Amino acid sequence: MRSRTTPRPVLGLRENAAQFSLLVAVNALVGGMVGQQQTVLPLLADGEFGLTGYTFIFTYVAAFGITKAIANYFAGTFSDRYGRKPVLLVGWLFAVPVPLMLILAPNWGWVVAANVLLGINQGLTWSTTVVMKIDLVGPAKRGLAMGLNEAAGYGAVAVSSLLAGYLAQQYGLRPAPFLLGLAYTALALMLSGVFVRETRDYARLEAAGHAPRSDGLHDHLHAGLTNRQIALETSLTEPALATASHAGLVNNLNFGLSWGLFPLLFATADLSPSRIGLLFALYPAVWGAGQLVTGALSDRIGRKRLITAGMTLQAAALAVIAASAGFAGWALGAVLLGAGTAMVYPTLLAVVGDVAHPVWRGRAVGIYRVWRDSGYAVGAIFGGIVADLMGMHAAVWAAAVVTAAAAVLVAVRMYETHPAPSRVQAPSAASADRTG
């Protein structure tokens, strides 16, 4: 009598289309948890809690960014040690109280506490879905995989921001917009618990067939690096990994600044909540949709050019927003900012996947995302201080200068990490048997 065995893993997007699509849907729900509050909370701070100091208002963004950054590290470490699916499930459990706390919050401290939990949720779930998708597709379609992942997440941010703005205008700032979050959490727990499968064996398969670069550039990045060595390479030493980490921080500095500042800036033109929601949604909408193109494009033309051009375009977009004082200029700036971010966001993740060894890829992704998502807090604090001292337009100008400097750093220090297409071959289970 034949025993039933689990099918051997095979790398590839087409080969794992069903599971990959499911993870795309889960990541859309992750993004939706952020979108439900982005339009509403700055208006809630001003309208219901009477907060006026920009630095104080931005505390919830800083709290979110700091906790998300820390959670990213543990997501990478635990997903390599215990598996991806348990980390994903635990992350969604942290989301359960968030909408209820925002609905019932009697003071701003509750909002900050809810964003601490949301940061943990985002760090654990988003990092894990990134690692799981990289596991499944192998090296050939890594850019496309990251483009699809980030498009789903930030497309959902845009849609939820728009829906929350509409619900706020029709039914008030509370509770209607935050009912979205309750629905997202329930659906995500069901999908993650019942249908998502563990993907760590796919990373082991890729590791078994892992071939070093012919130029010897990554010879020191072997499978046996310690956590401390991985952190050092990803943060400072390895040129591509470190530059990606620093560019990611600046990218999310802009997002953190926009999250806290843009709704307040747009409100100076006496726009309605729905118009503010539309303006805010343009940025992540273009960002999300653009990644469907840019992720795959980086598989064909390489990573460095897209990242350099994207950071430069972000700087130009921020200058347009800073120089504008009405809907048309802000809309143009938001579209350009989304386009620049779309060029950068999935490509930076693909760089990390290119360079990191499959055995410690989860930890490298986690450390990269620690740097990147620290940008939320840096952007909120930096933007709040500059806005308090010099005004909101000055804060956006300052972010434009920082972003331009990041583009120069990428151009000077990062090397091209994507191998020639002829060398990108997904290992089969048979090759794993020969090399494992």
UniProtKB/TrEMBL annotation:
Question: Where does the Major facilitator superfamily (MFS) profile domain start and stop, copy by copy?
Answer: 20-418
Topology class, membrane: Multi-pass membrane protein
Where it sits in the cell: the answer is: Cell membrane
Q: Would I find Methyltransferase among this entry's keywords?
A: no
Q: What are the entry keywords?
A: Cell membrane, Membrane, Transmembrane, Transmembrane helix, Transport
> Where are the bilayer-spanning segments?
20-39, 51-75, 87-104, 110-131, 151-169, 175-196, 249-269, 275-294, 306-325, 331-353, 374-390, 396-415
InterPro entries for the chain: MFS, MFS_dom, MFS_trans_sf, MFS_Transporters, Sugar_transporter_CS
PANTHER family in the record: INTEGRAL MEMBRANE TRANSPORT PROTEIN (PTHR23517:SF3), RESISTANCE PROTEIN MDTM, PUTATIVE-RELATED-RELATED (PTHR23517)
**Under which name does UniProt file this protein?**
MFS transporter
Q: Which organism is it from?
A: Rhodococcus zopfii
